Amino acid sequence: MENQRKLLESAGATFENVFRSNWYLTDIRDWDAIAPVLAEYFGGELPSPQVIEVARLTAKPGIRLEPDLWASRPRG
How many CA atoms lie within 13 A of 47 on its CB side? Predict the structure, then answer.
């Protein structure tokens, strides 16, 4: 999530600007443990969360969670 924070900041946005979130997990049973941690980054409820279980993620071996965040950049 710190990588996601850096990506958002590089675009001039924060987690507050995220309006949609997709979460790809290799084991859906992990969601109950992951959701409260994610809520800390978002300051409460996740924006429009979709949680999708997948067979595997291709980023790196052993990765179990991949976020897909949609944010609108503030004007200014």
Answer: 17
Q: Which long-range contacts (C-beta less than 8 Å, at least 24 apart) are formed by 53-56? A: 53/24, 53/25, 53/26, 53/27, 53/28, 54/24, 54/25, 54/26, 55/26, 56/26
- Can you give the pTM of this predicted structure? 0.86
Class of 2-71 in CATH = alpha beta
CA 35 centroid distance within chain: 10
Q: Which of 11, 12, 10, 54 is nearest to 67 (CA)?
A: 54
The string of pLDDT tens digits covering residues 49-63 is 999 999 999 867 888
